[in-house]
C-alpha cells in the first residue's frame, strides 16, 4: 500500500510503500483504545473575566511566594483538549487546607476565573473539590485525536529500510518499549506535549531525514532548501503579525532561528567526513528522546524502563505513586532524557548481543548526547563532531518548532 507524506508546509512530499514487513510488525503490536473526548472545555474559547466550572486532571503544582512573601499555588490542569495554567491565592488559609488533597487526588472539579496576560490565558482558582468517584485519569490527558496506528506504520517503514545490525536493534527496541512508547508525550509544555507526542515527534525527525537522504541533489542542497522554507515561513509570520493590533501579536515560531540553522550547516560542511551513515542516524533518532519514558510521568505509564535499567533496585516507591497529568518524573528529572537515552542503548546492546562495533556504539551515543545542538540548550557535548550529530540536531530543531504551527492548525 502506497502512502503520500505531506509535511512541513507541504514542502516535504514523497511516497512510501507499506509492505508486508511493515504489516507483520504492526500486527504484533498492541494499540490502545483511546475514547474520543467528551470534554467541551477549551480555555481559548473563554474571555478574561469569565467564570468556569470544569472537571480537570491535575498535572502538577508548586507553592510559591509573592514579592510580599505571601504564599500562592501555581498549578497545571488538563483534559483531552489541552493543558491549562492556573494559580490559587492563599485566601483565609486556603493553601494549607488544599495541599493534602493535591497530594492524594488527581481529578478535581474546580471553579475559576479566566485571566489573560500577554495573550496567554490562565485560570485563577476559587474552589477545588476532589472527585472521589472512580474516574480513569488517562481519559483527561491531552490527546489531539491522532491516528496512532497510521503514525506507527510510517515509523516502522523507515526502520525497515535500514540495514543490519541497526535494523534489528531498532525493531527490538521498539518491541521492548512499545506499550509506553506509543502513549508517551515528548514534553510537558513546549512541543508534542500530549499522548502520542513521542512517536509523532520521532516519526517527524525521520520524515526530515528521509527527505534529506533521498533528495536528488544531495543532503547539502536538501538542508539549504529546508532552511529556505523556514525563511519564507518566518517572513510570512512577521508580515501577518504586522497587520495585527500589538495586543494580539505573538512571538513568531521561527524567530531567532535562521542564524543558528546556517551556523550549524556551515559547521557540518567543514567536516572532512565524506559520507553519512543514515542507518546509524535513524537508529539514533529512535533513541534520541527515548529517555523521556523515564523523564516524564503521567496516568497510564508503566515503569518498565526503570525496571529495565535498574533490575536489582527496590521499586516499591513507584507503586505508591498517584499518577495524574503530564509532569516531570520525580526520579527521572534527576538524570534527564539525554543520559537515559545512552543508558537504554547500552542496556539493550547488553541484553540483545547485537554486534555493533565500538565506533558505531560511540557514534550513536554521540548523536543522542548532542541532539540539542548547544550546551546551553541541554546538549551533553560541546558541539557535534560527526555529520550525523549535526543532522540529528537539525531535524530535531525543524520538527520541534514546526509542531507549534501544526498543532495550532489542528486546534483551529
From TrEMBL:
UniProt-listed InterPro entries: YhaM_exoribonuc/phosphodiest (IPR050798)
Gene Ontology molecular function terms on file: hydrolase activity
Keywords assigned: Hydrolase
GO BP terms: rRNA 3'-end processing
PANTHER family found in the cross-reference section: 3'-5' EXORIBONUCLEASE YHAM
Protein name: 3'-5' exoribonuclease YhaM
Amino acid at each position: 500500500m502506497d502512502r503520500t507524506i505531506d509535511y512541513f508546509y507541504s514542502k516535504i512530499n514523497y511516497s512510501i510503500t507499506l509492505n508486508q514487513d511493515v504489516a507483520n510488525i504492526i500486527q504484533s503490536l498492541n494499540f490502545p483504545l483511546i475514547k474520543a473526548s467528551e470534554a467541551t472545555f477549551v480555555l481559548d474559547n473563554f474571555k478574561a473575566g469569565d467564570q468556569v466550572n470544569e472537571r480537570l486532571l491535575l498535572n502538577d503544582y508548586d507553592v510559591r511566594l509573592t514579592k510580599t512573601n505571601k504564599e500562592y499555588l501555581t498549578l497545571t490542569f488538563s483534559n483531552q483538549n489541552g493543558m491549562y495554567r492556573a494559580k490559587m491565592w492563599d485566601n483565609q488559609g486556603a493553601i494549607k487546607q488544599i495541599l493534602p488533597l493535591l497530594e492524594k487526588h488527581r481529578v478535581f472539579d474546580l471553579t475559576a476565573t479566566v485571566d489573560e496576560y500577554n495573550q496567554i490565558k490562565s485560570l485563577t482558582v476559587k474552589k477545588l473539590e476532589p472527585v472521589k468517584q472512580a474516574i480513569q485519569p488517562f481519559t483527561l490527558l491531552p490527546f489531539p485525536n491522532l491516528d496512532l496506528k497510521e503514525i506507527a506504520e510510517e515509523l516502522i517503514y523507515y526502520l525497515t529500510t535500514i540495514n543490519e545490525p541497526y535494523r534489528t536493534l531498532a525493531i527490538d527496541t521498539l518491541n521492548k518499549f512499545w506499550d509506553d512508547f506509543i502513549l508517551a508525550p515528548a514534553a510537558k509544555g513546549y512541543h508534542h506535549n500530549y499522548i502520542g507526542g513521542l512517536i509523532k515527534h520521532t516519526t517527524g525527525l525521520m520524515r526530515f531525514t528521509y527527505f534529506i537522504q533521498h533528495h536528488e541533489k544531495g543532503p547539502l542542497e536538501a538542508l539549504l532548501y529546508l532552511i529556505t522554507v523556514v525563511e519564507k515561513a518566518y517572513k510570512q509570520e512577521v508580515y501577518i503579525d504586522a497587520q495585527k493590533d500589538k495586543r494580539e501579536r505573538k512571538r513568531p515560531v521561527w524567530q531567532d532561528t535562521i542564524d543558528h540553522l546556517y551556523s550549524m550547516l556551515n559547521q557540518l560542511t567543514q567536516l572532512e567526513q565524506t559520507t553519512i551513515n543514515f542507518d546509524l542516524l535513524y537508529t539514533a533518532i529512535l533513541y534520541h528522546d527515548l529517555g523521556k519514558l523515564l523523564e516524564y510521568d503521567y496516568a497510564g505509564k508503566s515503569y518498565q524502563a526503570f525496571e529495565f535499567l535498574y533490575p536489582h533496585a527496590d521499586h516499591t516507591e513507584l507503586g505508591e505513586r498517584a499518577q495524574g497529568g503530564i509532569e516531570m518524573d520525580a526520579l527521572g528529572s534527576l538524570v534527564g532524557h539525554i543520559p537515559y537515552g545512552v543508558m537504554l542503548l547500552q542496556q539493550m546492546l547488553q541484553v540483545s548481543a547485537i554486534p555493533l562495533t565500538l565506533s558505531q556504539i560511540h557514534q550513536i551515543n554521540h548523536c543522542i548526547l548532542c541532539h540539542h545542538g548547544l550546551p546551553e540548550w541541554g546538549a551533553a557535548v560541546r558541539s557535534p563532531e560527526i555529520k550525523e550529530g549535526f543532522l540529528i540536531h537539525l531535524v530535531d530543531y525543524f520538527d520541534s518548532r514546526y509542531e507549534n504551527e501544526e498543532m495550532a492548525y489542528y486546534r483551529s
